[in-house]
Amino acid sequence: MAKILIIDDEPQLRALLARIIGLEGYDVEQAPDCTTGLRLLSQYEPDVVLCDVKLPDGNGVELVGRIKEIAPAAEVILLTAYGNIPDGVQAIKNGAFDYITKGDDNNKILPLLSRATEKARMQRRLARFEAKLSDEHSFDRIIGSSEALRQAVNLARKVAATDTSVLLTGETGTGKEVFAQAIHQAGPRAREAFVAVNCSAFSKELLESELFGHRAGSFTGATKDKKGLFEEADKGTLFLDEIGEMPVELQAKLLRVLESGEFIKIGETRPTKVDLRIIAATNRDLEKEIAAGNFREDLYFRLSVFRIQLPALSQRREDVAEYARYFVGQFAAKMGKRIETIDDAYIAALERHTWHGNVRELRNVVERSLIMADGERLSADTLSPEFRAGAGAPPDSLALDALERHHILKVLEYAKGNKTEAARLLGIGIATLYRKLESYGV
Ligand SMILES: Nc1ncnc2c1ncn2[C@@H]1O[C@H](COP(=O)(O)OP(=O)(O)OP(=O)(O)O)[C@@H](O)[C@H]1O
C-alpha cells in the first residue's frame, strides 16, 4: 500500500485530506510542522509527501530540498495558497513533483497522488536495481584466493578510487572485463554509465562511427544522426576491450580525445566535449606490437599510466577448485539441479587441465558437466572425454568415441536442438559439430 505523509498545521484541513486519501486505499500519516514531518520521513518512509507552504517552524518551499536529501525516492506535492504561483514554480525548481492550490484544486489531488506514487515506486525499483548491479560488479564478486590474483585485486582497488586510466593485460578469459567493471563500480563514476566496446568486433569504418558517432548523410547508410560511444559514456567509464586490435589511424584519433577531451563526429565540423575515464584491455603484448609498427607508442604511454597484469590460471592452479565450486553452485541454481557432493576426481581432473581459455573455459566446462549430471553427485564422468583421458584411464578409442557421442547428443538435447548453442557449450566450431553429427548418422 502506498504511504502518504501530510504536513500541514491546520488540523481540520489535515484531517479532511487524510480521510479523502485514506478512503482511496492509501496509508496516511500526519505532521503539524517541519520538525515532526522530517522525523516521520525517516521512520515512516512515505512514497509521497503532501506539504503546506506556511508552517509554524519553516517554509514548505524550502523544505522540499531537505525532504529530497533525506528521502530521494519520495515525491513532494506542495499545497500552495490561492494565487501564489511563484511558490509552486520555486517548489518544482527545488525538486517537487508538482503543486496544487489549496481548496481550489481538490479534484486534482487524487490523480496527482496516483502519478506521484507511481513515480516514487519506479524510483525505488531503480535504486534497488542499481544496488544489485553494483553488488554484482563489486570487487567482492571476484573469485580467487591465490597471491597472484589478490595482488591484482589490491592494485585495482587502489586505482579505482582515482580517475586514472587503467590498462588491464592478461590472456583471454582471465577476467579483464570483470576487473574493469569492478574498478568502475568502486570509483567516483559508479553512478554513471559503464560502456564497453570490443575493438576487434568491428571493421575500421564501423568502429570509428561506433566510437565517434555520425551526422545523418555523412556516408552511405548513415540515415540518422547517431550518438557515439564516447558520448554515451560521458561522465562515466569507457571500456575499450582488445585495444591492441584497434586500427592505427583510429589510435591517433583516440589519443586526441584522451588529451583534449574533445572529438569531432563524422560529418561534423564542431568538436564535442566529453569527460571520460578510460579502461583499456588487451591480451596482446603491446610492446611487441609497438616494435612491429601496429600500435602507437604515445597512446601506449597514455593508456598504461596504471597497468595491471591479470595472472593466467596456469600460474595459480590453487584457484581452480574454488572456481569449480563457485560455478557449480551458480549453474546448479540456474538449471534447478541439486548437487550435494563434488567428487575429488572431478576437481583433480580440472586441476590437471591446461586452461588456455582461463576462467571462461573453466566456467564453460563446469556448465557442460552440470548439463550431464544426473544425480546429486558431480563425478568426473560428467566431464568430456579429454579430461578423463588425462586421468590415466587406459586409452580405448572406441569407448571414447561412444562417450563423445553420448556427450554431444546430451548437450544438443539440452540446447533444445539449437546447434549454434550446442557448439558454444561444447567449445567447438559449428562446422565440427555438423561433421560429428553426420558421422553419428544424426
Ligand atoms: N576472478 C573471477 N571471478 C569470477 N569470475 C571470473 C573471474 N575471472 C573471470 N571470470 C569469469 O570468466 C569469464 C571471462 O571473464 P572476462 O570476460 O572478464 O575475461 P577477459 O579477460 O575480458 O576475456 P577476453 O580477453 O576474452 O575478453 C566471465 O564469465 C567472468 O564472469
Features:
442 residues; alpha/beta; Rossmann fold; Helicase, Ruva Protein, domain 3; 5-stranded parallel β-sheet; 18 strands; 15% strand; binds adenosine-5'-triphosphate; phosphoprotein
In CATH, what is the class of the largest domain? Alpha Beta
Question: Helix segment count?
Answer: 19
Radius of gyration: 30 Å
Q: Could you list the spans in which at least 5 consecutive residues all have pLDDT below 50?
A: 392-398
- Major beta sheet, strand line-up: 2-1-3-6-7
Largest β-sheet summary? 5 strands, parallel
Q: Please state the second-level CATH architecture of the largest domain.
A: 3-Layer(aba) Sandwich
The structural class is: alpha/beta
Total domain count: 3
Mean pLDDT: 89
Bound molecules: adenosine-5'-triphosphate
What is the overall silhouette? Answer: globular
CATH superfamily of the largest domain: P-loop containing nucleotide triphosphate hydrolases
Instruction: Briefly note the CATH topology name of the largest domain.
Output: Rossmann fold
| Beginning-to-end CA distance, first to last residue | 57 Å
Percentage beta strand: 15-25%
Note the quaternary state here.
single chain
By DSSP, the count of extended strands is 18
Secondary structure: helix percent: 40-55%
Question: How would you briefly describe this protein structure?
Answer:
It is built from 19 helices and 18 strands. It has 442 residues and is of the alpha/beta class.
Describe the structure.
The chain is of the alpha/beta class. The protein folds into three domains: 3-128, Rossmann fold (3-Layer(aba) Sandwich); 137-311, P-loop containing nucleotide triphosphate hydrolases (Rossmann fold); 314-439, Helicase, Ruva Protein, domain 3. The protein contains 19 helices and 18 strands. The chain has helices at residues 11-23, 34-44, 60-70, 85-93, 106-136, 147-160, 176-186, 204-212, 229-232, 248-260, 286-291, 297-303, 320-335, 344-352, 358-372, 385-389, 397-414, 419-426, 430-439, and strands at residues 3-7, 27-31, 48-52, 54-55, 58-59, 75-80, 98-101, 166-169, 194-198, 213-214, 226-227, 237-241, 262-264, 271-273, 277-282, 306-309, 341-342, 377-378. A five-stranded parallel β-sheet has the order 2-1-3-6-7, with helices on both faces. Strand 6, helix 4 (85-93) and strand 7 (98-101) form a beta-alpha-beta unit. Helix 3 packs parallel to helix 4 and helix 18 (419-426) crosses helix 19. The two termini are 57 Å apart. The relative contact order is 0.07. Bound molecules: adenosine-5'-triphosphate. Adenosine-5'-triphosphate is lined by residues 142-144, 170, 172-178, 241, 281, 283, 359-360, 363.
